[in-house]
Amino acid sequence: MKARFARFTALALLLCLTAITVTSALAQDTAPPAPVQEVIAEDNPNDRGHAVLVRWHPSPDDGTTGRVTEYRIYRARCLPGVQPEVAEFERVSICSPALGVGAELDFVDVSDEIENGIPYLYKIETHGSAGVSSTIIDEPVIATAQWFDKSRLTMLIAILIASSVIIYWIQKAQGNTNIYLRPVAGLKAFDEAVGRATEMGQPVLFVPGIMDMDQIETLAGVSILGYVANMTSRYETKLEVPVSRSLVMAHAREVVKESYLSSGRPDLYHDDMIHYLTDDQFAYAAAVDGIMLRDKPAACFYQGKFYAESLILAETGNSIGAIQIAGTASPAQLPFFITACDYTLIGEEFFAASAYLSNDMRHIGSIRGQDSIKMLFMIALAIGTIYVSLACLGVPLPNWLDMSLILDVSGS
Amino acid sequence: MIVTIGIWCAAFLTLAIFSFLYKDNPFYRFAEHLFTGVSAAYWMVVAFWNQIHPNLFGNLWWPDWFLRKWPEFTYVLVDEVHVGGEILPGNALVDGSLSPEVLASAELVNIISPIYYIPLVLGILFFTRLIPKISYLSRWPLAFVMGMAAGLRLYSFLQSNAMMQISSTVNPAPIMGQGFLAWLNFLIVAIGVFTGLIYFYFSKEHKGVFGQLSRVGVLFLMLSFGAAFGYTVMARISLLLGRFQFLGGWLGGIFGN
What we know:
The complex is a heterodimer of chains A (412) and B (257).
Chain A: H1 2-30, E1 37-43, E2 51-57, E3 68-77, E4 90-95, E5 105-110, E6 119-128, E7 131-142, H2 153-173, H3 185-200, E8 204-207, H4 216-235, E9 239-243, H5 246-262, E10 274-276, H6 281-295, E11 299-303, H7 309-319, E12 323-328, H8 334-340, E13 343-346, H9 348-358, H10 361-392, H11 403-411
Parallel strand pairs in A: 8-9, 8-11, 9-10, 11-12, 12-13
Antiparallel strand pairs in A: 1-2, 2-5, 3-4, 3-6, 6-7
Chain B: H1 2-18, H2 26-56, H3 64-69, H4 71-74, E1 80-83, E2 86-89, H5 100-105, E3 107-109, H6 117-126, H7 139-169, H8 180-199, H9 208-255
């Protein structure tokens, strides 16, 4: 009898427990998800204003169960005397749930509709299959502009160090003629190329790339053009400079005119030496190819920023038997120039070319300064490589050598 | 019919350009001059309507009568059209949603940004090249562009070509706990960057150990150029195939596949 009573009681308890569990589960499914927690809205740092950073911890129901489907972020202008509950909120974004991954979610509300110095309210709605719960941030937030972007402090220090080193060497180089520069084969060939064109009575073709004056490579290319123009004026050789940008044409004319004046042959200069063709990349390449085939220049210089037209130009120059000297810092085009041209100035050689060619001690001092900076980078690279290698190979390192230091620098 | 003529023109011009592979000829010259002339005009129009018109003219002051006189030209300059209590965008001037009577009574709002008068003045200074006496003034906008370019690129060059290059090379995150081969790969890359930098060191003679390291740097450079060459050639071949496919479609249309 006792055993029967015990079995009955156990069964009743089990049924009760099952009923409670099912009821609570049903209640949970029909109740809206819990709201988000620890919501913070603050001015987004290091910007021009017009942006607010909203951070929050996900709803406790945000997990793998799928009870939270999304978070909706709303913004309202904070008007005096108006309670946050009745403010006119406007939806600004929808964010995906964390699904149990990540302790904190955030959203940067960037919009010109956010006026600097004006308070705004934010609300986050937690949406789920069973309803919506919302959290209003009572504390208004004001977007402000910052004068300085502190995240770029590392770069500011790097620029100051680099500039100081270069200025120091420029100052030191003035009056000092003993700064050594190693020979660069491509630069030595400049005289040879123009000389050959002079002997053959054929023109010199100079292509300053296809980009505008806002590219450093174009600036470097036009600078080299000044040197080439100086030689063609002295040797009385015809110079032809087809360009693809109007600003480059204006600047190249100034530079070439200056070179012809400085060599005492302004009579040989005329504006048509530097002429505009078109802004279009392949139309420009087609037109320069036509010039090469018809005028048969004996020397072709490609100095500037190039893209896919590099091989088209260099192959055509090769087919007419011209001596070709290229110079660019575009890594994707260097292989083509190396393949098809007689000499190629690679990257840094191209930027250093104007200093080499001008023989101006200020420019040479600048090259020396840049070398010092390269040395600093090489030292940093060597130290970093040894340090990382030791860490990878399991060699115990002192605590003050924190790996996060390198990771921080990598991130910035 | 117009589409067919267009396809025939494109096929003829493609073949005319390809004829350059044989030698310079009148067909190539025709295609070359047409391409150059049309593209020069095209880019001028694009630059005017996509850059100067909305970005410069759109931020300057214009008299109300001017904005109403040529709406097809000026609707880009109008920021808002106020009709009664309603605020409409500038293209309400031309989209036909408002009758001429309503437009006549509407208020046209043209938001002005005074700072844009600086590029306007600099742009006008370019044209002083046409007047020999004051042509020197055209150097001012040139100086502005060059100075701006140098200053703007200083930051990005130092960051992307120097700082990031070094920090990415010694970034331990991808190799920590990945074994010996990952470390060896890291070491090869680090040696490549180090010796490459030595090659670009100009103020020391490349002799002895320094010279040997420089040669190793050249080796790394040539390896990377070889890889880039092969990769880019494949991309160019795909461009060529695109033109062949177009010609194939054209021929298929003529001969009925």
